[in-house]
Amino acid sequence: MFERTVFIVLMVLLGWTSAGAKQAVPASNDVALEARVMDISSELRCLVCQNQTIADSHADLAIDLRQQIREMLSRGMTDAQIRNYMTDRYGDFVLYKPPLNTSTALLWFGPAILMIVALASLYLMLRRRLRMDAQAFDPETVDEQDPPALH
């Protein structure tokens, strides 16, 4: 009887919480326009999330940028003009695949440089360990006649 009452209460609560949910409304009835918005948005980085594209992000800024792209496309701007506008406003960082130039060289080569430094450090450490005497790896033995001092 108790399980049945708990089940009924849970079902009522679930029905009550979902009653306020709204159905997603498409931003535009033009399917081609929405496809272009999502295409451009998938090339731009969300400035809030930074690991998601504007198309994938649910941040308020990403929603605003998608709306701004939608408005620019309805005014007749090309994809390249929109990308240029976004990079002029936010810099090359907004591009999910930034171009290779002096200001983005660290983005492109930084991970490889860090990997090379880490591998070189590991190699040098292992090489140093190979040259060490085998006794350096033995645990120190405590003299059994002298008990450890208690403080």
Describe this structure in words.
The protein is mainly alpha-helical and about 150 residues long. Among the domains are: about 25-95, Cytochrome C biogenesis protein (Helicase, Ruva Protein, domain 3), CATH 1.10.8.640; about 105-130. The protein has helices at about 1-20, 30-40, 60-75, 80-90, 105-130. The longest helix is centred in the C-terminal third of the chain and has 27 residues, at about 105-130. It contains five helices and no strands. It is flat. About 55% of the residues lie in helices and about 0% in strands.
Give a short synopsis of this structure.
The chain has 151 residues and is an all-alpha fold. Helices cover 55% and strands 0% of the residues.
Estimated structural class:
mainly alpha
CATH superfamily of the domain at 26-94: Cytochrome C biogenesis protein
- Could you please say which CATH topology of the domain at 26-94 applies here? Helicase, Ruva Protein, domain 3
Rough outline? flat
What fraction, in percent, of the residue positions are helical? 40-55%
Features:
5 helices; mainly alpha; 151 residues; 0% strand; flat; Helicase, Ruva Protein, domain 3
Task: Give me the secondary-structure topology.
Elements: H1 2-19, H2 31-41, H3 60-74, H4 79-90, H5 105-131
